[in-house]
Amino acid sequence: MTRRELFLPAVLVAMILVFPAFGKFPYAYYQFLRWVASVTAVVFAVVGFRVGHRWAPLLFVPVAVLFNPLMPFHMRKADWLPLDVGAAILFVMCAALFDRSLKRW
Q: Which of 44, 47, 84, 98 could form a disulfide with 17 if both were Cys (CB 3.0 to 4.6 A apart)?
């Protein structure tokens, strides 16, 4: 897996997670957001574990559960905002960290 293959999706997911802070969107957008965030979190948990970061599933499985689209958590927008920003930061930071590990793997 190359740097672009992991880092670019992480940045895109981060942008999608933070974007709702700047406006009101239809419910379908938030459903799409849940799918993208939860699938990306599962991928990061697996990739992180495979490259030797045994803690990655401990971070990303809860993110996948929080954003899961099948049994969603319902909260106000103000409650989601810090979670969205935190998840976005987590994706970008771990993508950079995993990139270094992938080069050695």
A: 84
pLDDT tens digits, 61-94: 999 999 999 998 888 888 888 888 888 888 888 8
- Count CA atoms closer than 13 A to 81's CA, side-chain side: 9
Check if the beta carbon of residue 59 is closer than 8 Å to that of residue 12. Answer: no
- Let me know if 17 is exposed, middle or buried by CB neighbors in 10 A (0-12, 13-18, 19+): buried
Note the pTM of the prediction, 2 decimals: 0.80
Locate the domains of the chain by residue range: 3-104
- For the record, the structure tokens of 71 come out as 């049994």
Asked if 105 and 53 touch (Cβ cutoff 8 Å), the reply is: no
Provide the residue type at 65 as one letter.
V
Asked if 34 contacts 69 with a C-beta cutoff of 8 angstroms, the reply is yes
